[in-house]
């Protein structure tokens, strides 16, 4: 008996039972027959009973297989439920990954030869600002955002705010501003810093008239308090970023000062927004 489906197995049992029913009916007629015919009928009945035993064994085997498969199916359902929970968790994580993540620099494994000073040892010491100003990023400071062989930016870049930092900002200060908006402003300010100090690093002899005029304007904005400090004024922000000096932008600048990303340096008719060293 080779059945490829339950339908074929059911058909097989149906045929066997039909034959048994017919044989029992014939057996009842053999009671009045002669002895030789009765003997042949008894042998046929023995054969039929053997088939019944075989069918019983097959049914027992099928029941055991069904029980085993039911156990396997239960295990599969449990695995499916765990996978569904995992997929929902992954989808939630994917949908809530912040668009801005802090970048940390890996410690350099380069060892300086004996007798030579490392680059860090030869870097100029930070120049303190005037009294009342927190320590800002100094010229010559290594930018932690540059990685691998990628050309470093012409100046350090402002670090993104973390979720905890943003959550710690008083409600009255941030109002309805969102975490994503705050780090978008950080991106725009970094664009302005990069554009300004890229211009400042160009050799003056290679500048065109427009660049030279802008360079002179930028130099006039410097003072003794800004020596070695990277800063922007409002005109820089409007020229080199998509930000407008609206009430909302000024609120973000206040928020960044509160979080220790910027400090103000006033004087000479300018309000300068200087980078603060946080690493």
UniProtKB/TrEMBL annotation:
Keywords: Coiled coil. The keyword Coiled coil applies. GO terms for biological process: cell division; chromosome segregation; mitotic cell cycle; regulation of microtubule polymerization or depolymerization. InterPro entries: SKA1 (IPR009829), SKA1_MBD_sf (IPR042031). The keyword Coiled coil applies. GO terms for molecular function: microtubule binding. One of its GO terms (cellular component) is outer kinetochore. This is SKA complex subunit 1. It comes from Littorina saxatilis. The lineage of its organism: Eukaryota, Metazoa, Spiralia, Lophotrochozoa, Mollusca.
């Amino acid at each position: 008996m080779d059945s490829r489906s339950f339908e074929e197995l059911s058909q097989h049992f149906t045929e066997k039972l039909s034959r048994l029913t017919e044989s029992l009916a014939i057996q009842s007629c053999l009671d009045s027959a002669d002895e030789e015919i009765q003997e042949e009928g008894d042998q046929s009945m023995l054969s039929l009973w053997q088939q019944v035993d075989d069918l019983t064994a097959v049914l027992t085997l099928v029941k055991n297989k069904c029980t085993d498969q039911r156990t396997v199916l239960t295990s599969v359902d449990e695995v499916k439920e765990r996978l569904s929970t995992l997929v929902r968790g992954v989808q939630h994580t994917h949908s809530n990954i912040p668009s801005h993540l802090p970048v940390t620099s890996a410690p350099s494994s380069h060892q300086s030869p004996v007798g030579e000073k490392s680059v860090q040892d030869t870097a100029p010491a930070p120049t303190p600002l005037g009294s009342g100003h927190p320590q800002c990023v100094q010229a010559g400071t290594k930018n932690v955002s540059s990685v691998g062989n990628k050309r470093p930016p012409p100046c350090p870049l402002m670090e993104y705010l973390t979720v905890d930092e943003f959550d710690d900002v008083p409600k009255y200060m941030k109002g309805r501003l969102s975490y994503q908006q705050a780090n978008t402003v950080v991106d725009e300010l970094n664009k302005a810093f990069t554009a300004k100090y890229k211009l400042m690093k160009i050799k003056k002899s290679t500048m065109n008239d427009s660049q030279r005029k802008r360079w002179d304007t930028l130099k006039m904005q410097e003072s003794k308090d800004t020596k070695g400090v990277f800063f922007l004024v409002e005109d820089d922000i409007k020229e080199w970023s998509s930000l407008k000096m609206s009430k909302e932008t000024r609120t973000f600048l206040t928020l960044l000062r509160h979080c220790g990303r910027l400090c103000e340096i006033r004087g000479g008719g300018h309000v300068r927004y200087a980078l603060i060293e946080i690493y």
